[in-house]
Amino acid sequence: MRALVAAAVLSAAASASAGGGGRVPATNRIELRPGPYDDILVGTTFGLLVSHDGGTTWRYMCPAAAHYGGAYDPDYAYGMNGAIFATSFDGLAVMRDGCSFGPTPLLAKFASQVERGAQGELAVALSDPTASAIAVSSEDASFPQTTPIGVTTDYWQSLLVSPDGQRIYVSGYRGLEVTDSILLLESHDGGVSFAPMAGANLTTTASSTVILVAIDPLAPDRLYARVDDPTTSEYAFYRSDDAGAAWAPLTTLVDLAGPPSLLLRANGELVLGTRSHGMQSSVDHGATWEPLACPLHVACLAESASGEVWACTQNYDSIELPGDGYALMRSTDLATWSAVMQLHDIAGPVACPDGTLQHDRCESEWADLAPLLGPTSSSPACVVAPPDGPMMVDAIGSEAPVHGDNGGCCSADGGRGNAFAILVVLLAQARRRRNHKV
Fold first, then answer.
1. Predicted confidence band at 158 (pLDDT cuts at 50, 70, 90)?
2. Which residue of 39, 53, 201, 347 pairs with 33 in a disulfide if CB–CB is 3.0 to 4.6 A?
3. Do 20 and 45 contact (CB within 8 A), yes or no?
4. Which sign does the torsion angle of CA 292, 418, 302, 154 carry?
5. How many other C-beta atoms are found inside a 10 Å radius of the C-beta of residue 226?
């Protein structure tokens, strides 16, 4: 039986120390402020990075500033006015001044997912022992509308909002004594009411979870989902053209390094990024896939308003995988990638007044963390050896290798970092020193 994630989060909240829980320093989420702005936030395994100049300069906020810790990764959403919303151990939090995450009316409830609609509305999935619900609000975060959608053993893992704000889709699971059941719900009235999706043709096992990954902005009935099976490290992608009533299988892969990322671009193209099996794209809604020339090791993908694709990439070499030399990269054509940031490029902590958690906790934590992030050695970025054998299996079972040695698909050379095992040891030592400071 799959352990309830909500219970694990509450346990982590009770015991979490500052820092990234002993994990390798890595980027895992990108949020771009909507509109003609240069504000970017990047989630990492060791805190939050923010840039206000399009990625030229980066500053650090530690987990304590956003009210979380350990190995937990918050969900983030940019408001239209620049506010940053984040799930935290203290409920949904919001930062409006660039320094402090403060409470919202959902403070007392654990919010597992937060999503912004194109009109600025916020939808929040509550997975709390006292509430299983979807809350909807304008950007003032007053949350006048909260719709119960389940029982208190439900945990919501993904949330999508259509551009008009009327379609809201949510997936999760219900923890039972013997087994767990997958939950798929939809709303066609802006979250006032929800109904179960039929979910026909989704192939799952007792350990599977279903993650809703994209909604077509031009066809809000078209959804894309990923079915994860942690026992086999298999990830299967599906598409529904009828709001989740029925699903068609697209692509399946096995990746021991972690879940793949699927990006639906504004032009309708799909981009699939994996941590160890390269990248692919599709221009026919996932019916067929073509390998991309640059086999980056991708943990997340996002697209800017100008059409640039941004990727969380692997800054350091690890025991399993070579590094890309950068923690963030971007591309206008998916063929050549430009370096954005190495982790040792972080300029320092966000400067905030005395009395804020960012000042009182994060500045001292940064002093311990910064020496562990670089500088890196010099070797070509994102040049890797071809994988052994086929990696992708499409819906009808044909196989194809996804990449070989890209031999210079990057527009800039960068360094691969120190071996990640050394970093884990050093981070753990720094955290122990920090936890003994009183």
1. very high
2. 39
3. yes
4. positive
5. 23
The predicted-structure confidence for 107-151, as pLDDT tens digits, reads as follows 678 899 999 887 778 999 999 888 899 999 887 778 888 999 988
199-217 pLDDT, tens digit per residue, is 889 999 888 999 999 999 8
Average pLDDT value over all residues in the chain: 82
CA distances (Å), 44 to each of 18, 171, 271, 305, 421, in order? Answer: 13, 24, 22, 23, 17
Task: Find out whether the peptide bond into 375 is cis, omega within 30 degrees of 0.
Answer: yes
Indicate the length of the chain as a whole number. 438
**What is the distance between the alpha carbons of residues 156 and 225, in angstroms, rounded to a whole number?**
14
Please give the structure tokens belonging to residue 344. 């040792």
Contact indicator for 98, 78 with CB cutoff of 8 Å: no
Q: How far is CA 140 from the centre of its chain?
A: 24
3-state secondary structure string across the chain:
CCCCHHHHHHHHHHHCCCCCCCCCCCEEEEEECCCCCCCEEEEECCEEEEECCCCCCCEEECHHHHCCCCCCCCCEEECCCCCEEEEECCEEEEECCCCCEEECCCCCCCEEEEEECCCCCEEEEEEECCEEEEEEECCCCCCCEEEECCCCCEEEEEEEECCCCCCEEEEEEEECCCCEEEEEEEECCCCCCCEECCCECCCCCCCCEEEEEEEECCEEEEEEEEEEECCCCEEEEEEECCCCCECEEEEEEECCCCCCEEEECCCCCEEEECCCCCEEEECCCCCCCEECCCCCCCCEEEECCCCCEEEECCCECCCCCCCCCCCEEEECCCCCEEEEECHHHCCEECCCCCCCHHHHHHHHHHHHHHHHHCCCCCCCCCCCCCCCCCCEEECCCCEECCCCCCCCCECCCCCCECCHHHHHHHHHHHHHHHHCCC
| Edge-first strand listing for the sheet containing 180-187 | 154-161, 168-175, 180-187, 195-196
